[in-house]
Specification:
Length: about 110
Amino acid sequence: FAGVELAALAVGLYLGALRGQSREVISIRGDTVAVQKGRRGPEQTLAFRRGWTRVELAGPPHRGHPSRLLIRCQGREVEIGGCLNDAERGRLAEHLRRWITPAAVSLAAA
């Protein structure tokens, strides 16, 4: 039984290490918001039109579950900040809203 327990522990540590290597990069350039997700390099890239992009902090789907931070644009969405706690996710949502909103775009152009 000790061998089975050690194997289960090794698998758990390996899966935890893989999850710890995940990256999310959000780039805001001109009129484009890009989200790249992956481990060593970008495995998924989504680009959104900045003027139409909305940041939404959705409540938890079930009681006791974490909230969800979504970037949405024209029927497409991507969830970000899955490794953050609810307070960190809320702060990130506020920062992203300030950087992405059309008012920020017009101020940057002025």
